[in-house]
């Protein structure tokens, strides 16, 4: 999944124009109510964390949930936005957008891996958009350059926040799941982010 915004590719375009551009573009594109934003290819560290996250989320028989990797479009109909999360978890049937059958509208958990150039966007405007999705229960951001994650959980009309550090677990009640944070930073190639000494 593209990890960094590259800047606006075009302004005041219709959704139909976005779909046509996205079909032929080499980059992955988000749609922000008439503005198209290209996403830059992720770093190796970013890609490895995303792959490890999908692997750790996948073998779950307790609930009918699927962890879907980068590239799946999430549509926020209320604000005319189409976003590209790093990992999207959907439980039950996919609900598709009325304007884009390739985009879903019912994620339960969304994960973003932070890079230096996307951190402000992922923690600010992008999270603001995700909060408009009634289905969303948890929004998780994972640091790329250190062992840290932050979980935002829906609590009625409000959101509660929890920071997770080395040796802690990501608690995801909506998925009835706990994941050791350190496991996200280890894969078959070894340590992605070294342990603090």
Task: Characterise this structure.
It contains four helices and 16 strands. The chain is of the alpha+beta class and 197 residues long. The protein has one domain (43-191): Alpha-Beta Complex (tt1808, chain A), CATH 3.90.1570.10. It has a six-stranded mixed β-sheet with strand order 1-3-2-6-5-8. The model is unreliable at 1-9 (pLDDT under 50).
CATH fold-level topology: tt1808, chain A
Rg over CA atoms: 16 Å
Model regions low in confidence, pLDDT < 50 over at least 5 residues:
1-9
| CATH architecture label name | Alpha-Beta Complex
- Secondary-structure-derived class: alpha+beta
Strand order of the largest sheet: 1-3-2-6-5-8
Number of helices: 4
Instruction: Please report the distance between the alpha carbons of the first and last residues.
Output: 31 Å
**Form type:** globular
Give the H and E element order. Answer: EHEEHEEEEEEHHEEEEEEE
Give helix % range. Answer: 10-25%
Please state roughly what percent of the residues sit in beta strands, choosing from under 5%, 5-15%, 15-25%, 25-35%, 35-45% or over 45%: 35-45%
Q: What's the β-strand tally?
A: 16
Biggest sheet record: 6 strands, mixed
Compact description:
By secondary structure, the chain is of the alpha+beta class. Helices cover 18% and strands 38% of the residues. The protein is globular and about 45 Å long.
